[in-house]
Amino acid sequence: MENSHISALSAKHAGLEARIKAETSRPMPDAILVASLKKQKLRLKEEMSARN
């Protein structure tokens, strides 16, 4: 069960990374959205690290 939770967190992390990349590649990226996505991504990374 723990492994599936980490896999889900990893998938969410990858999804956030894709959203960040898509937003930053736009001509005028939304800086507030990018900052929010990065914070979410960091929280997920910290949670994954805490579970290992």
From TrEMBL:
It holds the Pfam family DUF465. It comes from the Bacteria. Gene3D superfamilies: 6.10.280.50. InterPro entries: DUF465 (IPR007420), DUF465_sf (IPR038444). This is DUF465 domain-containing protein. It comes from Sphingobium quisquiliarum P25.
